[in-house]
Amino acid sequence: MSKRIITISRECGSSGHSIGKEVAQRLNIGFYDKKLIEVASEKSGLDEDFIREYGEYQKPSLLFGLAVDPTFALNTVAGDYVQMSDKIFYLQSEIIREIAESEPCVIVGRCADYILSERNDCLNVFICSDMLSKVEHITSKNGGEQRKVENELKKRDRARAAHYAHYADRKWGAAANYDICLHSGRLGFEKCIEIICNAYKH
Amino acid sequence: MSKRIITISRECGSSGHSIGKEVAQRLNIGFYDKKLIEVASEKSGLDEDFIREYGEYQKPSLLFGLAVDPTFALNTVAGDYVQMSDKIFYLQSEIIREIAESEPCVIVGRCADYILSERNDCLNVFICSDMLSKVEHITSKNGGEQRKVENELKKRDRARAAHYAHYADRKWGAAANYDICLHSGRLGFEKCIEIICNAYKH
Asked: Distance, in angstroms, between A121 CA and closest chain B CA?
């Protein structure tokens, strides 16, 4: 059957975000990355940067959340104490479900593949790459020392994997969780876009 | 660049073998699965069934190997003790390298992606699927009780993963180890073939 939604999970530096953007453009459908964060920020009153971090990267503890906004991590359901990251996860989940209902689109990150797992019209894609290509990609855009960039990429991916494991109870980047996984470093940017667009139109 | 060799790793019951066979037929290139085992058997004098098992599934211990053929697990290189499974791995590696050198082809399983990792003309594919689709696929072909088939598939995949971890020192089925991973249960047989053929011709 034809798909309606494309979710893109991606390693940092794998060009997964740009691939998703180009796919959405070619298919002429919506693209949700920053826009999703803007909506979550509007709904919650929380800072966008804060949602960006909390909505995709596992943080060490609740203390960090409380330090940022002591009024946020409150009882929300009859005596249940809901952590900051949980609250953001539930908020994002609600928004992602609304978006998926309203229009065909590409959604980047934020456990969208898991959140929409009850729908059968999603094409779930994972984009990865080798460290050399990822570091080159980042340093060519932003500069930076190779070793530091590599450490930062690893740290970010560990936090994404931990966030996914925590909320989806699945292994991030394990092939069996996605419809298609593509290695952008070996296949190239254009080939990844082509494969995703063709699979979507199937 | 265009690829010359396709390696296919696959979960048991995911139709990876049939997909590989059909890809080879459409691309009009060689197909190595059983043929590889036949060559290994000819070269070593070992039974084909034995090579089939030892060449892709991790076995509990050396004792099993010795029980089957006490003369095989001997010193082979200046005092180095080489296990049965090691010997079969080295034998298969040699054959896989020779095949890759001699003709464009599809090679199924046997850590071929790892063995050929120094070549840059390989398209490394992993085929997976959900348990329900895999069990249905197997029982529709061979019959069998659903629960038993599921247990057997899990057991076989665990042994494949352990074999790959042992020899390739990599995680079997982790997206980053392959160029493309495809979920045959969600994409369908035909789509998987199409994606692989197109990526090969790229």
From this structure: 10
